[in-house]
Write a structure and sequence with these properties.
The protein has 347 residues and is α+β, with helices and mostly antiparallel strands. The chain contains nine helices and 14 strands. The longest helix has 19 residues, at 211-229. The termini are far apart. It binds adenosine-5'-triphosphate (ATP) and magnesium ion (MG). Keywords: ATP-binding, Kinase, Nucleotide-binding, Transferase.
Length: 347
């Protein structure tokens, strides 16, 4: 599969120079509108040997292929699931739980650099609240070295028991028109007694617990679990669920969403504000609008009611392997995640 000629735009990562490899310096070198994806909550970020996840001007995202065998394995997985001549009903069903895949993409001037071109699952949201949850009892695949296994286990020894790990989140705060973010270290700090509360933070907008969003997300996770209960051909290791819901209490035309549970909007939290601040766990601040919001036309943003305003998609397939048994480890994680979400709702 080659780069899609229609969407390729001039894109150059000019040689990094003078050891100045921070996020901003890399960004400045991305020409013709490809920029670091500002709605990324976990995973590899822009760095010296890595451009992380980028946003293409057409609204899709570009995930740089990781070094072999991980990158080619992920590419093979997407290619297999989205093959035009695919007749495997399990794989066809799986498509609805994944971001859409638009093939591979390469910068015109570096045709050997490969990226996966994917649907941006957050794109239709005005104020996306996003969480990346790694699923399964083991983060290492069956071919991992002893060192790799030990490294993964030491990162979160509770993975085996809990079956999932919060890798990162950002949550819109309605009163301040800002985002709270939590990184992977927050997730690793959560134990059996605190995981439910840790998870519930994702659904607090500073005023209310977003029960509607929790219910919708539960339904979508149940559908993914049903898919796993009927398939025995693939095992997923170190793969994630990306959860997204709408943080804005408004639709584009300024109306409140149907069935919204929010109290009247405080004037200071207009969703059009570009000066609002993001506070992360390290205490740094940034704009709530998101640095790349400007390149997505408002007509592309969410224009639907609250009942449609969530996404749950499986992402990160660098460690997916063929199998002939059910993926008990992933299902264990999904069931525990569902149980925790259901408990939050009951409180
Ligand atoms: N299709 C998507 N739509 C929106 N955001 C996405 C999408 N895919 C990835 N992201 C964002 O990018 C982050 C990292 O993605 P991903 O987990 O695929 O990469 P990674 O962990 O760096 O990769 P790998 O483990 O293969 O090295 C996710 O946490 C999420 O915030
Ligand atoms: Mg990841």
């Amino acid at each position: 599969m080659s780069a899609d000629g229609q969407i390729v735009s001039k894109f150059t990562l000019v040689q990094l120079e003078n050891g100045n490899h921070n996020h901003e310096s890399v960004k400045q070198r991305l020409l013709d509108g490809c920029v670091p994806f500002s709605h990324q909550v976990a995973g590899h970020k822009c760095g010296i040997n890595n451009t992380g996840v980028l946003k293409h001007p057409d609204g899709t995202i570009l995930k740089q292929l990781q070094p072999p065998p991980r990158g080619p394995r992920e590419m093979h997985f997407y290619t297999q699931v989205y093959a035009k001549d695919c007749t495997d009903t399990r794989l066809l069903e799986l498509q609805q739980h994944l971001p859409k895949f638009y093939g591979t993409w390469s910068p015109r001037e570096s045709p050997h650099e490969l990226y996966l071109k994917l649907e941006d699952v957050t794109r239709r949201f005005l104020r996306p609240c996003i969480m990346d949850v790694k699923i399964g009892r083991r983060s290492y695949d069956p071919f991992a070295s002893k060192e790799k296994r030990e490294e993964q286990i030491s990162k979160y020894p509770l993975m085996e028991e809990i079956g999932f790990l919060l890798l990162g989140m950002r949550v819109y705060q309605i009163n301040s028109d800002s985002y709270i973010t939590h990184d992977q270290f927050y997730g690793r700090s959560l134990g059996k007694d605190t995981i439910k509360n840790g998870l519930s933070r994702f659904f607090h907008n500073g005023q209310d617990l977003r029960r509607g969003a929790i219910s919708l997300i539960i339904s979508k996770i149940r559908r993914i679990l049903r898919w796993f209960e009927t398939q025995t051909q693939l095992h997923f290791y170190a793969s994630s669920l990306l959860l997204v819901y709408e943080g804005s209490p408004h639709t584009l035309d300024g109306q409140k969403h149907k069935q919204t549970q929010h109290r009247p909007q405080n004037n200071s939290s207009s969703h059009q504000s570009r000066s609002a601040l993001t506070q992360n766990t390290n205490g740094t601040l940034g704009g709530a609008g998101g640095e790349d919001d400007g390149d997505v036309g408002v007509e592309d943003k969410m224009q639907f009611g609250q009942e449609e305003a969530v996404e749950v998609r499986m992402i990160d397939f660098a460690h997916v392997f063929p199998s002939d048994t059910a993926d008990q480890s992933y299902m264990y994680g999904l069931r525990n995640l569902l149980a925790a979400l259901e408990l939050i709702l009951k409180e």
